Amino acid sequence: MHPFDRAIALSSRAPHHWSAHIEPRWNIGDAPNGGYLQALTIEAMARELEHPDPLTVTTHYIGRVEAGEDAEIIVEPIKDGRSNSVAMASLVQDGREKLRTLGTFTDLDEQTGTTLQRAYPPEFPPPDECLGGDPSEAPFEFVKQFDIRFAPDLAHSSTSEIGGWIRFREDRDPDLASMPLFADGFPPTVFSIGALGWVPTLELTVHFRARPEPGWLQCLFTTHLIRDGHFEEDGVIWDASGRAVAQSRQLARILPQS
Known about the structure:
CATH topology of the largest domain: Porin
Number of domains: 2
Structural class: mainly beta
CATH architecture of the largest domain: Beta Barrel
Strand content: 35-45%
Distance between the termini: 39 Å
CATH class of the largest domain: Mainly Beta
CATH superfamily of the largest domain: Acyl-CoA thioesterase, double hotdog domain
Order of helices and strands: HEEEEHEEEEEHEHEEEEE
Largest sheet: 13 strands, antiparallel
Low-confidence stretches: none
Oligomer: single chain
């Protein structure tokens, strides 16, 4: 089993109650990555709804989650309709709610209707011509799980953008379950303008637009407004075929270095 699939494995404790172990492998420093925590709640909601695929999911981060410890995920189904289902999930640790997720699920294989893509993938150099290093030497456990190649033009610019290519370091194709990881997998955009420090996510929304094809994912993340230490980060993820398979937006806060 791939480490990510093991990290989102759940066991049933009671109706609507699921037990999870927070794997330190997905930490940034000593804090679990926000995309990983969102993926855990998505897995719990998916087990209780008629529709199998997340369509749009929003997570608000309330308190610090401790890695290496167990947590409980409590799911509240809200709607089971013909075309979509809705649920809410709370991750609880030591009796305190640490985050809350609201999700709408559907069956992407059954979707039909008008389709128009104007979000074209950037003209990045191929992965082998982008900037990257040995993942095993990365400073954080989370980063060690991926092969990330940074687009040279963005890596050396002072714009509030970051992008490039990403895939799992160990052999695993991208899928809907892993999209939150990739949506929260690149360094914060504000690092490129010198706003260094701890950057916790306050809220993360991911829209799941299509099932990704196997292979590299291409990502671009952009920030348009930083105010009073808070900034938004908008992302688009394209699969190996050039389809936009996910969009994301998060609100985060820049904490000064101590």
